[in-house]
Every structure is written in structure tokens, then in C-alpha cells.
Design a protein that fits this description.
Number of strands: 12
Radius of gyration: 21 Å
Number of helices: 8
Helix content: 25-40%
Largest sheet: 4 strands, antiparallel
Structural class: alpha+beta
Distance between the termini: 20 Å
């Protein structure tokens, strides 16, 4: 289900790794959203080229976010606050994408222009006019990226400040790093330094999501492991509520092994927060982890089959 969004899904795997082993080399995922049929996958002849269909007609992969909003949590994200800036930036962009589908377009264009500029700067004789064109493209899309992130962070921080006091510690979030100054001018002035570094040293790709424990005024990275998990889960739940308000329908929530990492009190609080929040999918390796979840469809995943319980 996470593949029904732009990107590589919650596993972050290469497209060529998603096909059935010993199969044709292709894969496909499809769903019906209201009266709209959406589907994505690859052909065996081009396992690294993702294709997209809306009601059977070809469409861009980035257009997926216009039809469906999907949020997820996985065990690998438990170290988000201790991990790299890039991990937090990708997490933030997923939050932005759920609110502003055009974010995927700007991110793709910015990355393409930045890669082309880096390659051009590595050459001994660079085309100044082409560099300027690439820097103008980076500035256009980079500002759009930064402004969308700023809007999302501001709206989500406000939502978090009004969140109920329950078993999930409330986070305070802010956008750090590059300050959205004139990017085209900065890139032009930094060509020699960027060429030496092999990368652009200014731009939205240098931003970071700062998260703190709101009540303790302590950086999330310095909070306990349990608090970090609660902060992250509370942040995602608040964002899901924000998406539901903005888009008029709740996002699809994918919570992978979340219950296993919560004590019974927080687990009960989670189930209470999820009640009536739209379609939520949770996985676990033990059935008793879902005790108290209320009315729900249950499935057992076995080799080659997904069967209702």
C-alpha cells in the first residue's frame, strides 16, 4: 500500500527488488479510491522504470499523491531523532506531500537540476549560461520546497500545541538550516566552493527538522527511548488529523509493528486515538498485541497468501 504514493514505499527498496523471486521480473499494485482506479508497477522488460495508471490511462508517478494520502511508521524509524539529517528531511517531505501533492514535482525538479549542476561543475570548462539556467531552476523549485516545508511545520506545530495530554508526549517542531535567502545568487557566488566540495552547500537539501519534547523543552535526541517512540507516534497522529482537516478525508495509516514497541498503557491510548480515524493498517507477529483494538478486520500473512482470520 505504501507504493501507492511517489517514492519507494516504506521499505525504500529498489524497484527491481520488488518483483516476486523466480517470477517474471515485474510487479503491480492497484487500488480503488472512491470511483477512481489507480495502479503502479513495472514491466519485466524495464524493472527499474515505474509505470502509473489512473483509470487505465498513463499518468505521472507524482500524481499518485493527488489521489491518495498515505502515512506510515516502521521500526526502522525509531531512531529518526538520532539518525541523519537526510532521514529527517525525507520524513518531513513525506508529511509535506500528504498536505501539498505538488511538493513531489518540485522535489524531483530540484534534485534533477542539482545533479546536473554538480556534474557540470566537475568539468574543467563549465558552460556559464547552462549553469545559470540550472541555478535558476534550483532557485525556483528550491524556494517552493522550503516554503511548503515551512507551512507544514508551522501548521503541525500549532496542531501539536493543541493536542490532548495523553500517553503520547507532545512534540515541538521547527525547521532549521538553510534560511530561504536568494538561492540563485548564492549558487552563482558559490560555484568555486561547490565545485571543490562536489555538492551545493546551500539550498533546501541542507534543511533539518528539529524535534523537542514540548513539556520538558528537551531535544528529542536526548529523550528516553520510550519518549522518542511516543513523540514520533504523537507527531504522526497529529499530522494525520491535520491531513484529514485539510483534505476532507483521513489519510491511510500504515503502522508496522507499532504495538509491539508500546507498553500496555500506551497501546490502549493508541487504539483510542485511532478509533474513527479512517482506514488504519497495523501489523504484528502476535495476535495478543491487538487486544483492545475493537472492531477490525484481521488477516494472517503466510507464505504466498493473506487470509482473513
Amino acid at each position: 500500500m505504501s507504493l501507492l504514493t511517489p517514492g519507494r514505499g516504506l521499505r525504500g527498496a529498489a524497484l527491481s527488488e520488488m518483483a516476486r523471486q523466480s517470477g517474471s521480473g515485474s510487479f503491480a499494485v492497484a487500488a480503488r479510491v472512491g470511483e477512481i482506479d489507480i495502479g503502479t508497477g513495472t514491466a519485466a522488460t524495464a524493472p527499474e522504470r515505474r509505470q502509473m495508471r489512473i483509470n487505465g490511462a498513463p499518468a505521472s508517478v507524482n500524481s499518485l499523491s493527488e489521489w491518495l494520502s498515505v502515512l506510515w511508521l516502521t521500526p526502522a524509524m525509531d531512531r529518526l531523532f538520532l539518525g541523519s539529517t537526510g532521514d529527517r528531511r525525507r520524513f518531513l517531505d513525506r508529511l509535506v506531500l500528504a498536505l501539498e501533492p505538488s511538493h513531489a514535482h518540485h522535489a524531483a525538479r530540484y534534485e534533477a537540476a542539482m545533479r546536473a549542476r554538480n556534474k557540470l561543475l566537475a568539468e574543467e570548462s563549465s558552460d556559464a549560461a547552462w549553469l545559470t539556467a540550472l541555478e535558476d531552476a534550483m532557485a525556483e523549485h528550491g524556494i517552493a520546497i522550503a516554503e511548503a516545508r515551512a507551512r507544514t511545520v508551522a501548521a503541525l506545530d500549532e496542531r501539536l500545541s493543541d493536542a490532548p495530554e495523553d500517553e503520547f508526549a507532545r512534540a515541538a517542531i521547527a525547521l532549521e538550516g538553510w534560511d530561504r535567502r536568494n538561492l540563485a545568487s548564492a549558487l552563482a557566488n558559490n560555484r568555486a566552493r561547490d565545485a571543490a566540495a562536489g555538492r551545493a552547500i546551500e539550498g533546501p537539501h541542507r534543511q533539518d527538522l528539529a524535534v523537542a519534547h514540548r513539556a520538558k523543552q528537551m531535544p528529542a535526541a536526548q529523550s528516553s527511548t520510550g519518549e522518542q517512540k511516543a513523540l514520533l507516534l504523537g507527531l504522526v497522529l497529529a499530522h494525520a488529523e491535520l491531513v484529514a482537516d485539510r483534505r476532507g478525508e483521513p489519510p491511510l495509516l500504515l503502522l508496522d509493528e507499532v504495538a509491539a514497541h508500546l507498553d500496555p498503557k500506551r497501546r490502549a491510548a493508541l487504539f483510542a486515538r485511532l478509533e474513527g480515524r479512517g482506514q488504519v493498517w497495523m501489523t504484528a507477529t502476535e495476535e495478543n498485541l491487538f487486544e483492545g483494538v475493537g472492531a477490525a478486520s484481521r488477516f494472517r500473512v503466510e507464505p504466498g497468501a493473506v487470509n482473513p482470520v
